[in-house]
Structure formats: C-alpha cells, structure tokens
Amino acid sequence: MFKFIRGMASTKKIKVATPDGHRVTTIVGDGDTATEAATATSGAATNAVEGPVVATDRYTPASSGCPFADLREPPDHASAKSRCPFHAHNPIRPTSLPEAPPLVLSSADRFTHQTSEGTARLLADIGGGDRIREMCTRFYARQFGDYTLKPFLFNDDSAEAHGKRLADWIIEKMDADNPAWTLSGRKGQRTPSHVKAWNSIKRAPAERGKRFKLDDTRIWMRLHFWAAREVGLGPEMHAPFWEWYIEFIAHFIAVYERSAPRYALESAMWSGDAKMVAKYIASGNKMTDVIGIGRH
Q: Which domains, and CATH codes, for the chain?
C-alpha cells in the first residue's frame, strides 16, 4: 500500500518553548528522506526535518505513574525502568527482522484483519506487549493536552489506563496467543466507548454526538506516530515495525473515516518533521493546518 524508504538518519534532541513559557524536550527523526517519501507518494507538502521537538500540555500525571506520561521529560527507558510500576521499559535493541510482515486480511472479505506468525514475531522483536503499552501511554499523555482530541476523553483516569486499553487491543491484533484485550474484560467495549467519546459533555454542544471526522482522525494519527517514534519504534530504530504499523493504522482508521487512510503516511512523516511539530506547539497544541478540513 505504501512506498516506504529505509535508511533514515538518526534522531536528536532539542528544546522548544511552549505558549505558557515552559521549555520541553522531545525526540523526532532527522528525515529529509522521509519527507521526500511522503511528498512523492502521498502529495503531502512537508518541511525537511531539522531536529526533533516535543510538545507539552496541561495534563499532570501522577508522580507514581509511568514517566512516559510526563511530557516534561523525553522518554528514556533506562531511567523509567526503575521508576515505572506498570511497564518493563526494556532497552531498545536492533531488530532481528529483515523486513516488515505483510498486513494479513481475510480471504473471505479482503477487509477483516487477521493475526499472523509474522506479526507475532514482530511483537516479540520490539520487546513484547509492554512496548506497545509504553507507546500508547505516551500517546494519551499527548491526547490529554491536544486542543481537538482532549474533549473526546470522557474518562480522565490516566494516560496509563487509557494507554493500556488501546495497547491491549493492538497486542491481541498482533498475536493471537497473547489475548490481552480479551483477558482485560473489555472485549466488545471499543464501539460503546467511542459512542461515549462522541457524546462527551466536554465537546461543544454543536459537535456533541458527531462521529470522528477527517481532521480528528488525522490529528489522532499524527500524535500516535509521534509517540511511536519517541519510545523507539520509529523508522530509525525499528523500520519493520514502522512500515507495518503505518499499514495497520491506515486499515483500521477507515472504520471511523473512510477518507482517512490516504493520510496515514503523511501523518507518520509529520511526526518526524520538527518544523511542523514546533508549529503545533507554538499554536497551543492545535494542528491549524488540519482543523476544519473534512468536517462534512
């Protein structure tokens, strides 16, 4: 589905000022090659990456929680390992896989996703289920502060709790022998939870009850891929996962907005574009280039 270019440059860390005066640090990719790939294959107009940036928000994580829920510090597995009560935070190791596994769909309808030995191996290669939980914790920490997505969060329990719910679903989609979602007792609750999100009282009255629109899904994907990069699952550290995950997200995002899959690659590349991330931070965690597009 996607033309993917390997061999991207390494990551760096830089600091950026936020609208409320804080200075924070993050990780995004160096990646002129990535930008060129996105432009060539999806028509996305992005800027060359000059170095990584990170955003902050108003979300205050519990001091006893996962350090990855705290956007005031960049994710560091070595530091988090002794401080996190939830996740393993094992070191990121070079992949042993030569390429990404294919996205397997049912031969009956060519749409229903199926787990495979390849995706089970991929899950093990990235470090197991906790790596996905670490990624999703970071993602929800970002969503808690995003101008567009925060109002969908009808339940404010924590980034770790939200992250576990999403991660358990992803884990089970990757490995049928790891039924994390089923064992959580939440199987069948994904759609009811999204209905609650659409009807969240935090949304503006005129928007309440509306399903996810194109701009919502694009913002969701951008933040999600950004979190993946930060925890070591970006193209620089794990190209097979990155390549497979773009297709995985593109497949499932169509459930919520059928025009969204074409923006999956652009969203992944946005997450490595320091200029675009800095613009997002300076705008108060608003993606001004996307908000309002496709709200039919």
A: 11-282 (1.10.490.10)
Instruction: Determine which helix (DSSP H) or strand (DSSP E) holds 25, and give its type and residue range.
Output: strand 23-29
pLDDT tens digits, 22-32:
444 444 544 33
Contact between residue 207 and residue 292 where contact means Cβ atoms under 8 Å apart: no
For residue 4 the two structure tokens come to: 């993917």
Q: CB of 207 within 8 A of CB of 3?
A: no
**Residues whose CB is less than 8 angstroms from the CB of residue 107 and which lie 6 or more positions away in sequence, other chains included:** none
Contacts of 60 (CB under 8 A, 6+ apart): none
* H helix count then E strand count, the chain: 11, 2
Instruction: Give the mean model confidence (pLDDT) for residues 181-202.
Output: 84
Hey, which residues does 15 pair with through a beta bridge?
25
Measuring CA to CA, which residue among 169, 168, 152, 279 is closest to residue 220? 152
Q: What Å distances lie between residue 110 and 3, 98, 251, CA to CA?
A: 21, 26, 11
33 CB neighbour count, 10 Å cutoff: 17
Furthest CA-CA distance within the chain = 55
pTM of the predicted structure, to 2 decimals: 0.79
